[in-house]
Batch of 2 targets.
Target 1
Amino acid sequence: MMQHKYLRSAILLGLLLTLILLVGACATPSAPADTGAATDSGAAAADAEPAATGRGAGGDVNILFWQAVSIANPYLSGGTKDIFGASIVVEPLANYAPDGVMVPRLATEIPTLDNGGVAEDLMSITWTLRDDIMWADGTPFTAADVVFTGEYCMDEEMGCNAASNFTNVESVEAVDDYTVKISFSAAMPFPYGPFVGSTSPVLQQAQFADCMGLKAQECSDQNFYPVGTGPYKVTDFRANDTVVYEVNENYREADKPYFARVVLKGGGDAASAARAVLETGEVDYAWNLQVEPQILNAMEAAGNGQVVVTFGPAVERLIVNFTNPDPALGDKRSEWTPDDPNPHPFLTDYNVRKALSMAIDRTTIAEQLYGAGGTAGCNIVPNPPAVRSPNNDDCVTQDIDGANALLDEAGYADTDGDGVRETPDGMPMKILYQTSVNPVREKTQALVKQWWEQIGVEAELKSVDAGVFFGGDPASPDTYGKLYADIEMFTNTWDGTDPSSYMGNWQCEEIARAENQWLGNNIPRWCSEEYDQLYTELTETADPDARNAIIIQLNDLIVQDYAMIPLVTRGDVSGISNSLQNFQMNSWDSEIWNIADWTRGE
Amino acid sequence: MAVGTADPGGLQLQAETHRKQRTLWGDAWVQFRRHKLAMFGLIILVILVFGVVIGPLVWKIDPEYIDFAISNQAPSLAHPFGTDDLGRDLLARNLYGGRISLAVGVAAMTVSMLFGTLIGSMAGYFDHLDNLLMRFTDIMLALPQLPLLLVIITLFRDTLRDAFGPEMGIFLLVVFVIGILGWMPTARIVRGTVLSIKEKEFVEAAVNVGSRETRILSRHILPNVLSPVIVSSTLAVAAAILTESALSFLGLGFPPDVPTWGRLLFDGQNFLTYTPWVVIWPGMLISLTVLSINFIGDGLRDALDPRQRS
Amino acid sequence: MGQYLIRRLLTAIPTIIIISFIIFLILDMAPGDPTASLPMTIPQEVREQIRESLGLGQPFHIRYGKFMKQFFWSEPLNILEEMTGAQIGDPNRLRLRSWQTRSPVIDLITDRTPQTLWVVGLSYVIAVLLAIPLGTISAIRQYSIFDQLGTVFSIIGYSVPTFFTGLLLIIIFSVRLGWFPSYYDTTLVVHDWPSFVKQIKQMIMPVSVLALFQTAAISRYTRSAVLDNLKQDYVRTAYAKGFREHVVVVRHVLRNSLIPVITLIALGIPQIFAGAIITEQIFRVNGLGELLIRAIQGSDVPLVMTLTLIFAILIVFFNLIADIIYGILDPRIRYG
């Protein structure tokens, strides 16, 4: 009976398959601890004499960016990954240290009002450059390079993505070979936009002279292999894949860097990057490990590496739409004009916004979904500590009963018994709640929806592909700027430590609308005269303490009116191997800002 | 890969049916029943279909309900498939996901079979259309499938979502795209079969008697095309389920609030070492479904194509 | 034959043009924005400038015309220049540039081709070498244990999705046992024995997953092709003449049944370049498939367009090859 044999072999193979599955699921996790150390980088660590110091003594250091580096010119970068990758090679005049304080790099000191580097009228800043700096090709670094970089980025045709660092810059001039004066067209209480931080480093004039304007796009060699003043130079650039750096022989500190080669791999996803640094020990440093907290904890328990977290200015928040997004309105949808604020049927009511905020348990979101990478947040300016408002911390406590009572009092009742409250005009409180496609965001949505259900507000969830959501196509209805939804959620942040231009985002004139092609930054379409006046005051104040006080007031105005509902203060999460030393995590600048100091130990 | 391209032409079943008091389908069923693997596949498939159709009516836990108190639990009586990192019940999610995965498979198959049969029979029967339609088929075949699928879905996901609602929109898109990019092999098979049948005596007789073309096509030709179409339709269901799960696995298929098997696998992949059941169940279910459908397809080919019999 | 070839070549040209138009049209309707992945710290006005610098403001026909010129004229000339070292025409002609990297698209593709060829190409070769004997033996010994095991194996092979087997392999061999790396190192140069071992180690998982899938498919096809031929009259005649089995099989059956199999193999070659998207994704092989996925995610239109069009041209080309092979091998086919 051959058919029986047929069946038997089928069963046999079925059993085999099950066995394989079981092995996959239950294989004893005894091996990983030792195998990790046996792989290449780890082995190098064990073999390296801890005593060996000096330039290039440390062999390779392996870095993993799961979003691979596309370009090594930060002014044309496609994201943070590119800026970080470039920061190994090109340097700014000053960096932000992990505590948010500026430290000079190519300059001798930070110009201030006190040392006379910043003009009394706040209209100019003068940097004194170090005179002992060489480019990697052996030519001296001078003020001409700084002047050139300014012209390079301020050329409008070029599409420079650090253009906002050069806001109000009128001219960048070389006073002498080692002195640069930047003049502004308006008083700049915080004149550290140009050439501070890894977003606006100095490029070499000799190399980029032919790459001005539209030509910038065509200079592939320059964009992939920029000549820098940093500890390394690019020796092999494979776009969107791997970048290999080798020691810059002309680096100013003779005994640095310790590692001879930096291999920056790219590709995969956050979880595989976390596994590579924490579990298998294949790399020494992996950036941006936005992985489910349970998994990150389990991987860290393998003992090959550790998770490093620092908190900067990033806050995940809900944006409340103050205008009416009803599709029936056609072009008037979510459209604000000074004459017609087009108010939202119920979200313009302070009590509703407050109730929505009260119903949310921020601690659960932070702990369960963000883990080490987030804490419950009640401010839109969470850091640095000097500008953190102490006035809103009670938002951490969830209060469903309080929210229900508030809505009852304000006249929102469930009149037809379907579990959803109606406005006094009889309109059901249904909310379209959108965000970008992202597992953590979508889980947050699901949680918030469940809490809002408990206060009689129904939410319809929508997630838009990040490429569309964060895009600026004026024809697309799904961009975050159009806000064709009642509530939307994303993270916003600013560059550097000073939030003053960020605070300018919520002036009335910044409201995103058809007239400005939805390019305005005031997404909630929230307009407050008090806020605008206070912001004007900020732009005219020079004293740091007074400025900080105003920033805190501005933050409170937004948060206490629930125009934006902060949820989670997001940290930067990265992983390093146990043997990597002197790594200094930094939320205010490139995370690899001090790669020259990295060493390996036991 | 076009594996199961059933060989067109040469179906001699007509003569056989007249000689004995047996119908084509009765005959095929007898043959099919002898194919143990196919029967095994059929039984598994019936159980799976029954499970996902009836299952959610019996197992009433909301697949979307989040409860951190019971997150990451191993399979137990209360949650036979375990729970995921948000404490959602995985049995409920897998049952719900199976409905969508199977529906996508069947619907996409229907789209591609309808297109394929229509275009193939027209090309085969009407000589003046043949060249045009086959060039069109060639162009469609030359379009790179997976990249194009990815592009189209990324592009139109949100538009359709707005037009038809979150679930229906993406469902229509996935079905349409898989179907519209999958009809070409069927069209070729059907055309070949039609071409060979057109030359047969009984068709010539019908033409001589003066039957209208539409009648000849529907009464004489299409029934004979049925068996290769059935065989390739089983393969199409399997392929569509695989394609859908591959898309979801790349994060480009259904959104996370619509848990198809592929999506469950995608969401759970990070948890494989930590809570393996999150991945094992949907992975097993996809594999079992596709496996049983392919077994059935194998059996059908044997049953419907007399040349493959021993 | 010659006339037929010319006719086929001539129809291939409009086919490719139509395809290029369809793909360009679809991409043009894309709501995606290449500036979307920039950090939130970059204000909208700056993004608008970046879009302008990428040429997004121009009308459709101009962009399409530009693309076609770059793809079919400038880039082939550039490749020619690079190969011959000679200067042909305008040295500053516009190049097809990726929006993500601002570098010539062709450079990106040449960067990625080696690893894709290594992994996907090798697995295809292995699959072909395994599948033809497997399929033939299965057919000759139809319903033997070997055949039944083969059937079950191949149906499992193409039923269990590669992303599932891939995940299981990584967990077992990379994470639990630590035998193979979970990342594919594209900078590895094979120059001595240890680096060769390293290369084998990093290829073994993706290659075996892909080879399993393809062996299953091709062996199944070979089996049914051989079965078809075994039932032909000429085989019976050959047996009747008293030839021994392996003579019949090798000299008659195999030669005839391999014709469709070779055609199928030729048709499958373009998929070497396109079909391994998922496997590359799982095993972190930065090959062409991975390049395409990232390009789609980043709305990098020139790169997506070039890659898909190259795939399309390869498909058309190998269709042609398959037809020619068929014509050469099968004397019954006469090209009129």
Target 2
Amino acid sequence: MATVAPATPSTPKERDWTKPQAMAIPKEGYFKLQDGRYGPVYPRTPACYGFTLIAKIKPGREDAIRAYGKTIEKAIADLPEALATLKLHYLRWVLFDIGKDTYFMYQGIFDTDFDKYTEDAVALFTKLGVNTTFENLEGFPEDWKTNVPAFVKFVREHQCPSFLEYGEYPFVTADEIKKALKLKAAFADMLDLMQ
Amino acid sequence: MSALQQSHRISRDPTKQSDQSASLDLDDIQHFLMSRPPARAARYEFLAFKTGSEGRAWLTGLIDKVGTASVVGSSLLDARWVTVGFTWNGLQMLGVDDASLATFPEEFRQGMAARAGVLGTTGANHPDHWVGGLASPNLHAIVVLFARDVAERERCRQEHANYLKQRDGVKLLSALDLEAIPPFDYAHEHFGYRDRLSQPVIEGTGVEPTPGSGPPIKPGEFFLGYPDEEGPAAGLPQPETLSRNGSYVAYLRMEEHVGAFRDFLRAHGETPEQQELIAAKLMGRWRSGAPLVLAPDKDDPKLGADSQRNNDFNYAKMDPHGYGCPLGAHIRRMNPRDTAVNMNRRKMIRRGGTYGPPLPEGVPDDGTERGIAAFVGCASLVRQFEFAMNVWANDPNFHELGNERDPIFGTQDGTFDMTIPKRPIRKKIKGLPAFTTIRAGAYFFLPGIRALRYLASLSDGL
């Protein structure tokens, strides 16, 4: 994240993974307005960077969106590293109704900045040749493959910032977790070899 | 970073040009990003127009002096090369209408000074401290003059000064003179690092990329109106006459604190060899140009000078942990090669040179400003230049480093570190000082020649 001043009350030196931490976030989604390339910078919280996008789906597109679940499942099974670029921890896709309308919620937790994530995602979807499920959402720019700023604008307009985030092991990145697990496995192997 | 061309010159063999080159309109594109003339001196003049008509009249008399990509570099007799660019305010002043102005990208409309938060130009680097009036909305145009030598630069300076005397409504806000620093047989900057080792090659120009530099990049990454790495050109500013064959350039005047840099090397290395190693770790290359990935322990000047070898390396396979080139070293940040994605969409063309007198070795800093005044050319400032500044140069968590910025080029205030991976235990330098300060900057649009004529033909109030 290209924060040019501390974006949150926590500086890296205070980030202690052994101490669970909660962070209440102002309504705007940030503590102090800092300009990112496409809009305000959202802070890194004890639950890392993230987004929660909520958008109304086009009528009759629910099945198409649900089918997308299988598409992504297969894409990742075939190519487990497909989304490595995005530095993700988790993604969640949810559909829910409000009255007669169906809404789509897309939630992600990741370790790069918001704008970089979005730019990388566009490039990735274009490269993999997969259409995005966003095409089933109202107001999504049809020219998203060639118009990255419009894609980013849509994402930012539908972002609902958290007002509270919690981390059991705050600020730890996915890479650090993987490194720790690798180290654990290596130690286990080493101990086996010493028997 | 970039320095003035000394004696080398990219030769373009027309017989080698691919089919794509036919579509590159070399008669219309300004030479600036396409060819690098053999200049040893330069002058940048920053201009303000009092009225649109005066600005247009000034431009009308200058268009024929602007070098095109087809002409520059084709004659050994050339002695000076002229480039013209405008800020968004400048385009407005020249009479571009509001509808057209609104089609330019947001970051260009705002201008570089307003993007300080995005770029990370804070603290001493903040536009409030910039010199030469570049953070002012009155900055409308730039003329870049590259000259074969200082005498030719001075002749041109006088000629343009005489021309401006006839144009009451065009004011010289400020100017910067640049000269290559000795020794002249290779490009380098004031800290002594060999420069210009890794530059993208534009597809269709017939230039062969040096080994390790990757394939040629689609022209649309640098010139508007051509296919880019994602496909056909899209979202161009209107009218097309104005945008086609144009480029954006980000200008940065970066002071180099040579005394502080040398003090730092002495403080962190007891012997000259150790000091050279520290200098190399900050940059990712020895000052000779030899990359640490290929020469991790000892300088190899022959390798540094060999363009067929000095860029032929990667990080993911050859130095994944940074034992040679630290993860946060300047060149590993500004060109992460195979450890980043979408690299072909982040390429930029650098131009520019050194200004100020060199500081001789062993002499304390004399307080004179010296540094690099360079341009970064691209088709999208937000995707290319601002990304590099925001994510690569100034992201404290780049490569999971946690509390580091680019050691040479990042905004440093003594609170960031530099990690040097080393077996068995890494070395961490705490509280890196600022070796550079951004003293000025601006975004310009470099129109094609037809677009310059279009601008000159506009009128007020349309």
